[in-house]
Design a protein that fits this description.
Length: about 60
């Protein structure tokens, strides 16, 4: 798994936890955390797909 994908996944997990804590405390800032979680999960998928495409391209070219 690419390092950037792992970092994005870690950020996603942390933002989900922050959103849950914010909503439990009754703070609406949790909406921002949810948006950040969505962004970071998309980044993780992007880096995973890019690494997979690069691996396939290298094996096809060899």
């Amino acid at each position: 798994m690419p390092r950037l994908a792992l970092y994005a996944l870690a950020v996603c997990v942390l933002t989900v936890v922050a959103a849950v804590v914010s909503f439990v405390q009754g703070q609406w800032i949790g909406v921002v955390w949810v948006l950040m979680a969505g962004l970071s999960s998309n980044m993780a998928w992007f880096y995973l797909r890019r690494a997979k495409a690069e691996r396939q391209q290298q094996t096809a070219g060899v």
